[in-house]
Amino acid sequence: MLVGRKYRLMLTPEQEEMAEEFGNLCRAVWNTGLEQRREYRRRGAWIDYVQQARELAEAKAEHPWLKAAPAHILQQILRDLDKACLTHGTFGVRWKSKQRWHPSFRFPDRRHITVERLGRRRARVRLPKLGSVAFRWSRALGGVVKSATMSRDGKHWYISFLVETGEAEPGVSLERGRVGVDRGVVILAATSDGHFFDRDFITPGEAERYRRLQQQLARTQKGSKRRKACAARMRAIMRRVRDRRQDFHAQVSCQIVHGKGLVVLEDLNTRGMTATGRGTAPEPGTRVRQKAGLNRAILDKGWHAFELAVRNRARRTGATVRTVNPAYTSLTCPACGHAHPDNRESQAKFVCTACGHREHADTVGAKNTLARGHAGHRAWRPRQQPVREAPTSVNPRGISARPLRSESRRPRPQGGSPSPSVEA
What we know:
Blueprint: E1 2-10, H1 13-42, H2 49-62, H3 71-88, E2 104-107, E3 114-117, E4 122-127, E5 131-136, E6 144-153, E7 156-164, E8 177-183, E9 189-191, E10 196-197, H4 204-218, H5 225-257, E11 260-266, H6 270-273, H7 288-301, H8 303-317, E12 320-324, E13 349-351, E14 358-360, H9 361-373, E15 400-401, E16 422-423
Parallel strand pairs: 8-11, 11-12
Antiparallel strand pairs: 1-5, 1-7, 2-6, 3-4, 4-5, 6-7, 8-9, 9-10, 13-14, 15-16
Helix pairs in contact: 1-3, 2-3, 4-5, 5-8
């Protein structure tokens, strides 16, 4: 199993300057390679990694400054660029801005990486051209190092090792439970068994200081030392907020996945949901301010990062993670299957207009998410037990459930267990 290990580096001034230079070279190679790919696409042609790597080797003869960085980290940048272009399209890949990009580069060859522990809290790693770099030994590696990635976050540098533990991923146990998760902007996560997980990631004092720093930043001149110092203080606050959010996601994912064999999440397009509201100054859009507030709330909860944390934890425990269509999950009654917009009286209050069922709206969404994720999942079809999950559908006009299997004597289909007894 492949796992990640991250440590804080203790670079000397010379090593820190060299790492900054490596990062700038990687950014230049990325932007140049991306521009080259776009020019080829405009002419209706295509250039791949092999050709770009060959041209990079030829460019080192004309531009000796490219030789300052190890060859394989520049080649790795071109590999990452090739993968990004194949995934998102050549014109869908972003430039690496000097102001917004944090230096990061990878050493992909494990033969050039040597890790040695020096003491209880100290170790060192030998890297090409950087030499021996000390780092804080906060946890054991637990396996064989496959690659190493250096990155800067604020004023500190970190190194992340990709480690092969030698352990096989655990299999899915059919005896374990299952849970549905509903993500929201008021409560981060609500589960189908009635649990809620949420917390504030920024304190009131930090929020007030950050607001004042934003006002101060607006009064500074671009490129000035005062502006850089103000931006550094803002990044320090946001770094603490980001660390709290990441830690909370890891803790919640452990509690949700522990003892479960199936975890069902809503298939949410977070990038599309947090897109900027449309509109211009001459033709302003509608509810632009409300859309901006919704975007901030979604990004503050970290929906996508939470899903990644759940998937990472499920990979270690052997649980299965499924995503389902989230349409009308919070408007469908889990008792009778009736779906109507009037069922949800408020953000947290759900009252079915057909049967009068009352429950927290986020719990209702989690239950319907779990029921929808059962479709086609053989692990949850015991032979002698009926399927008692709530009927759900993307059809908002109302749903009626068929009798349970114990009441319906239809022949069992061949090739697997039957699907949930639901009709729309």
